[in-house]
Design a protein that fits this description.
This is Quinol monooxygenase YgiN. With 96 residues, the chain is of the alpha+beta class. 34% of the residues lie in helices and 30% in strands.
Length: 96
């Protein structure tokens, strides 16, 4: 069963350019992963510095493997100092 993920990132405005560069590398590498069906970065049009990562994975096992990938672990480490608040992550299955 496919699993959907929405991750919400809120960045300090001073780091937006650097954050986007880090996101570009993350998205590029993640889209190559087995089981990745969708991995899109969306910027909130009304709240500068707020981004949504919209993910769709073939299975929860694929998502779990993604969680241990070097490119994701490095991204998390690199953006930690840039975030205004903790990242919110929502996971679920399509109901309708």
């Amino acid at each position: 069963m496919n699993i959907h993920v929405v991750a919400v990132f809120k960045f300090n405005e001073n780091y937006l350019m650097e954050a986007v560069e880090l996101f570009q590398a993350l998205v590029k590498e993640t889209r190559k992963e087995e089981g990745c069906l969708k991995y899109d970065l969306i910027e909130d049009k009304n709240n500068k510095g707020t981004f949504f990562m919209i993910e769709l994975w073939e299975t929860e096992e694929h998502l779990n493997r993604h969680s241990g990938q070097d490119h994701l672990l490095n991204f998390r480490k690199d953006v930690a100092k840039m975030l205004e608040s903790s990242t919110e992550v929502y996971k679920g299955y399509k109901t309708l």
